[in-house]
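FORM 7B - TANDEM STRUCTURE REPORT

SECTION 1: FIRST PROTEIN
SEQUENCE AND TOKENS:
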Amino acid sequence: MFTTEVNDSRSLAAWSTQQVAIPILSWILTYIAMLVPETILARRATNLVMDAGIEAFLTTILFWSSGFILAILIRQIFPSAAPTGKWIWVLPTLLVVYLIAWDFAKVGNPIVLIEYFYPKGEQAWIAYLAVFPTYACIAYSLGMSAASSKIVKRFIRTSPTSLQA
């Protein structure tokens, strides 16, 4: 009496595409955006380098915001991507949790976990390859959920000319 057909291959393909594309696109957008402060610092003084804490803070903000903005844009272009896009946070989050648990079990000292959230030196690769892209995936999933809300739909469809009237 009640039947629902789900095209699993299309859903898996959409999820896989988003799972790969969002971290890469977020990386590209963040890299381009980080060129601005680096250029400003380079023009002010030749020996001035951005502090690791400031760089980590800016990178975190840029990955979160790029993921969220990509979700809003992709939702508008490909509305069918929303159901699978809401779930791309799961795999990278599980990976980061596993990496943190592995390092903590191996070393046993919580100080080793700083490299995940305050990247500095040679250990920074773990944050830039795992943690920051995970932020983008979480923000993308939140953006996909928010893009389906009535408030965001109303905001996106409201044109600047209709606000003036």
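SECTION 2: SECOND PROTEIN
SEQUENCE AND TOKENS:
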Amino acid sequence: MNLVVKLDEQRRLEVPRSFFEPLDVKIVAGESFDLWALNADSNHLQILSPDSTLSKLRDRLENKSLDLNIAWDAGGDAQVTRYRQISAFLRLSCRPRTSGANVRITLPSEALNLGFFVPRGYVVLHLIEQIVEIWDARRWREVTAISSVRDFTKDIATEE
């Protein structure tokens, strides 16, 4: 399922509650909640379930309840790279509407400052099974373009 939504001047998106079902989020009208989103490999955001290992790890990093024990000279270590990536997760503020079936997502200013989205631009919310993603509409067009229908059909046929 794909949904094209315009980002308003305050970095907000109105999305149907159904987009949160794969994330197992308990939605109560009028009660705000936060979710983490990671920088996925195609310069888009993937929203994480609050019960996921990565969300829980990011919460612990946020609360300073992780004992990382990283020395000053460990800058190139794999552990430091992983925690750098985790610390880069973006917090999405979500507020269910008191009337209607939508949830308002407010993106952090970093999402625009880092170039994921443009102010007042269009975004694509993509839902497939348990994966919930937010894409800049221009980037979505680039990564979903099919250059050869024949090759694409052949590749898909071999996956079945």
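SECTION 3: OBSERVATIONS ON SECOND PROTEIN
The domain at 2-159 is CATH 3.40.1550.20 (Chemotaxis protein chec).
The beta strands are 2-6, 12-16, 33-39, 45-47, 90-96, 102-106, 122-128, 131-136.

SECTION 4: SIGNATURE
Preparer initials: ____
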